[in-house]
Backbone:
């Protein structure tokens, strides 16, 4: 399963001939390669998967996806099923 997470571009620059950006994920900034979406600009949201921005999206879509991720996280905390890490601890 793949998971792409929305983040906001806060700085854009080039490194070794490739476009990069600092992308904010709710207060945590990470360096992300923009090779797949070089047209993305500061202030825009991108979907990031394993260090690469793979698509652009508008702010409303980003907020909707972040809300869904929070719901999934909350559901996992309430789940009666053991998490994968708990299952691996079971003898």
Residues:
């Amino acid at each position: 399963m793949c998971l792409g997470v929305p983040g906001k571009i806060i700085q854009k620059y080039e490194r070794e001939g490739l476009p990069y950006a600092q992308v904010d994920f709710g207060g945590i900034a990470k360096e992300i390669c923009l090779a797949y979406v070089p047209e993305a600009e500061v202030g825009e949201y991108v979907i990031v998967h394993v260090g690469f921005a793979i698509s652009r999206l508008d702010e409303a879509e980003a907020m909707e996806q972040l809300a869904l991720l929070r719901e999934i996280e909350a559901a996992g905390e309430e789940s009666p099923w053991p998490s994968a890490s708990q299952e691996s601890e079971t003898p």
Summary: The mean pLDDT is 87. The CA atoms of residues 6 and 62 lie 6 Å apart.
